[in-house]
Design a protein that fits this description.
Helix content is about 70%, strand content about 0%. The two termini are about 35 Å apart. The chain is mainly α and about 170 residues long. Helix 1 packs across helix 3, helix 1 crosses helix 5 and helix 2 packs antiparallel against helix 4. It has one domain. It is globular, with a radius of gyration of 17 Å.
Length: about 170
């Protein structure tokens, strides 16, 4: 799935959501548990950015489009300036093997189960994390920094497959 590039206004909105989630942790006692809900969502957003299609790939593709539209309106409403200049595009999409796709599927199911048990505020943090993770992965800088991740996920899937096949489980 080819996603729209993130614009500067979309990045501004993403940065605000990121700041809103990281600031309470930073100014508080910095307990890692405070970042867990946001981190689960962000992780799923990054994994979704690796998907070439499917529901997770579609959601990851929608994140920059929604962020660009909402960011443009917000920046325009506050400043009166029109925005829309795209940032340099990057992508993690289309690099999953069958084994990697299974790892992404299992991680998605785990996050969905966590979502179902989460409190209302944690659900909001998970959605914010999903949005931030998927949106930021459309930029060249973040996609480049995370370029190792598809290989790591694929390798984890291959290792799981090898362990199950060698153990005589299947």
């Amino acid at each position: 799935m080819k996603t729209a590039p993130l614009t500067l206004a979309g990045l501004a909105l993403t940065a605000v959501i990121l700041w809103a989630n990281l600031r309470p942790w930073w100014t508080g006692n910095r307990d890692p548990k405070l970042l867990a809900a946001f981190g689960k969502g962000a992780g799923l957003g990054v994994l979704g950015a690796m998907c070439a299609g499917g529901l997770l790939g579609w959601l990851a593709g929608c994140a920059p489009v929604v962020g660009n539209a909402a960011g443009s309106k917000a920046v325009g409403a506050v400043t009166g300036a029109q925005t829309g200049a795209p940032l340099t595009r990057g992508s993690l999409s289309g690099s999953l093997t069958e084994e990697g796709a299974v790892i992404v599927f299992v991680a998605t199911v785990a996050v969905v189960f966590a979502w179902r048990k989460a409190a209302k505020d944690d659900k909001k943090r998970m959605v914010g994390g999903l949005f931030c993770g998927a949106s930021l992965c459309t930029t060249a800088g973040v996609a480049g920094a995370l370029s190792f991740l598809p290989g790591l996920v694929n390798q984890a899937g291959e290792q799981a497959r090898a362990a199950i096949e060698s153990a005589g489980v299947l």
